[in-house]
Amino acid sequence: MSTALVTIVSGRHTHLRRQREWVAVQSDPPLSHVVVSMGDPQIEGVLALHPGIPTELVALPAAAELPLAAARNAGVARAAHLGAESVVLLDVDCLPHRDVLRDYRGALVRLTGRRAVVSGRVRYLPEGMTEGDYTADGVARLGRDHAARVLPPPGELREADPRMLWSLSMATTVQTWDAAGGFDERYVGYGGEDTDFGQRLAAAGGGLWWLGGATVHHQYHPTQSPPVQHAAAIARNANLFRATWGFDPMEGWLHALEERGVLARDGAQWHLVEPRSNSGS
User: Fold this and answer.
1) pLDDT at 280 over 70
2) Phi then psi dihedrals of residue 236, to 5 deg
3) Can you say how many angstroms the Cα of residue 231 is from the centroid of all Cα atoms in its chain?
4) Could you tell me if 149 and 199 are in contact, meaning their C-beta atoms sit under 8 angstroms apart?
5) Residue 191: which of 260, 248, 115 has the closest Cα?
6) Which one of 57, 103, 130, 220 has the minimum C-beta count within 10 Å?
7) What 3-state class would DSSP assign to 26?
8) Is residue 71 over pLDDT 80?
9) Per residue in 198-236, pLDDT tens?
10) Cα–chain center distance at 224
């Protein structure tokens, strides 16, 4: 089964450079590393640092908000055009263990005949690592598992709730991707598009599977929890999701933003709370 690796990116050039170093030593190399640039003309220079990796660059125009759903669709479409039968989606922050593509490909072969998305192990790396720490031994020592993710024993597959689908690291066949219809490109900016794809997968008779393997190591970057800076997009995408599927996605974030007075709910609709003026009379 031929497999392409798809990564979408805007900025994060150091993360992409490191990821490519790990892609170069995969035990089961990809048909191609399809890199989708979301309005970032400097990505081509980062890719040139590793000319030995078969690579396809898909350049999307700059937009006011990152077109995450459209970028993933563009990447998978290019992979399919190249002849890939399956795809691994990997966020630019993630460093793939040398057997990630082998593990994912093997899991998809075992699930032949099913419409399945497989999600492997994700370990989070701490702040303050030096370049010398980014070795197989270094990341194995420093990485920590995500508390919300199920971790089956090595090599085992365990069926999961499609609402837990997260495109950070996942694999599927092009046939399953097409049956689900890919990502809904009405989702723009941060939040909701992964959960929506999980519902599209389920509606097409497919399912999510956790894999004990396909380990990736997530490189540190600053974050906010809840992501206040993305509140407007989260509200807009949550409203779209609810109108489509009848329930809220991202409930933890929505309620945390509500508690902070950043978002408010009016009936079934979430909206951004306009800040009050502190000016006196």
Assistant:
1) no
2) -60, -45
3) 19
4) no
5) 248
6) 130
7) coil
8) yes
9) 999 999 999 999 999 999 999 998 877 788 989 999 999
10) 18
